[in-house]
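Problem 12. The chain below contains 463 residues. Write out its predicted structure in token notation.
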Amino acid sequence: MKILIAASEFAPFAQTGDFAGYVERLAAATAAAGNETTVVLPLYRCIREGRIVGLKRGKLRLSIELGANRVSAEVWEASGPGGVRLIFLERDELFDRTGLYGMDGRDYQDNAARFIFFSKAVVELARRESPDVVHALGWQSALVSVFARDQRLEIPTVLSPVSLEYQGHFWSHDFALTNLPGEWFPNVLEFYGSMNFLKAGIACANSVVLPGALNLAAMQTPEHGCGLENLLRQNAAKLEGIAPGVDLPAPAALSAKEKNAACEALFKSAGKTARAVFVAHAGSTGEGGLGQLCEALSRLPMGEVLVALIGAAPESQRQRIQIALRRRAGGMVHFPEPTPAEQERLLQAADFIVVPGALEPGCAFFRLALRAGIVPVVEQGAGLHELVRDFDPVTGQGNGLVYYRHSVEALIDAILRAVELPPATKSLLVERNRARDFSWASTAKALDRLYSRLPGRAGRLAA
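Solution.
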């Protein structure tokens, strides 16, 4: 498959933060999956000065309409890491600058013009290259899908917002630079009187990729939608939840002696009598969930159930946590800011990770716990199926324990169910979670499945 990726950053050549590394790893994984992968970027000054090996000017020259003017774009090429082909679009007055988006904490005043030009040039390049899919990343290239639709380009487009926090808001008078028919502003680009690149891209793309099933659900709510939740709900049919890869090392299997030593280091003498050790992450669940956990701890057997809480708790829950720590002296510990050694010891000692309430979309520690073979005990929520499926003793399917009522009683029942798990069942769930694949290769496979079923693509290949 031939994939054209449009982005404004690419590590290590042009970067302002994590976005550049995300683009580089996504492109490398897509190429490693057997796709002919090309990444299109602006030719910034830092790229010129970086002296990329093999960077050379190509023969292609694009002519782009930008408002009342028609300007050209020179095309440069180089080979990127992992067999990725890199194309850079040169327009010095737009991209030959010290910063990528601004200087001294201020955005460039013509960022709308810069990335309207870039998106138009990507569409024109796609017309020449004829890829199977154009995948735009971030607000900077979100208008690719808009211009592709306006020009009736018969190539499906995918948009990954990456973050809804950054949307590309600009003055309405910059709309003239798009050369789109006037009705496109109120119907597609307008957002509270201004122009919103990300909103328009979501409306026009054939598919919108959000970072995982948990985020797919969360971003359609006011809490996480950054004002675009209604638009996302309206376009729910074309949303895809595909989690970005996480570089988690393969965990070493622990002997019973090593596990007991880690438990006793955390809980001293109480660790010798424990039937199960639970770890909970204060940042992986909401405030209500922490309150339920503290209430449940007051009613769970002392000595048999040990609990380690990791991460800083919200101010509203700190007093309740302190009370729980005093009540379960020796059987509960809290590490607000754990050191790497303390986190490793927690992962070694824990049998179960308990998440009272909805699992937060990011949940990096939760993924790490699964990879370490810790069995999840989680309340059912939207998108949870991506990470946890309830174990069914009849079919033998599942990798954790899921409860379905948001109550202290349901949480207590789930914890006691975990404590009473037969050793053979627990070992099975441990191995299933240790085998979980959170790699970029898994992300690339999910994207390949998406690309293959995009509307119009099958017809293009047959032709």
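Discussion. Residues 458-463 have pLDDT under 50 and may be disordered. Students who got a different answer should revisit the alignment rule from Section 12.3.
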